[in-house]
Write a structure and sequence with these properties.
By secondary structure, the chain is of the alpha+beta class. The protein is about 55% helix and about 20% strand.
Length: about 100
């Protein structure tokens, strides 16, 4: 008789997600849902059209001040996001007008 490895349901689901290539899409959805926790309420309120396409985070800002701030924090924010997820989830941040 073959011994079966016993794992938790959470581990089994995570393994299934990774095997099927859904990990990145899941993390992208988490990032969008957690945007206000990552950038703060003020910046999140000024963010519009937030989406991720081919590793590029696209966003539009409704305030000139938020736009200037995002240009300043763009690269450190990308690094923070990638560090949070443990791999290069976001290759670039594109600020649309």
């Amino acid at each position: 008789m073959r011994k079966q490895k016993i794992i938790s349901l959470g581990s089994a689901i995570e393994e299934w997600i990774i095997e099927r290539g859904f990990k990145q899409k899941l993390h992208e959805a988490q990032l969008i849902n957690q945007w206000s926790n990552i950038v703060g309420e003020r910046m999140a309120k000024n963010t519009q059209n937030l989406r991720i396409e081919k590793g590029v985070l696209h966003l539009r800002l409704s305030s000139g001040l938020a736009l200037q701030e995002m240009y300043i924090i763009r690269q450190p924010l990308r690094d923070k996001i990638n560090q949070l997820y443990g791999y290069e989830l976001i290759k670039d941040i594109l600020i649309e007008r």
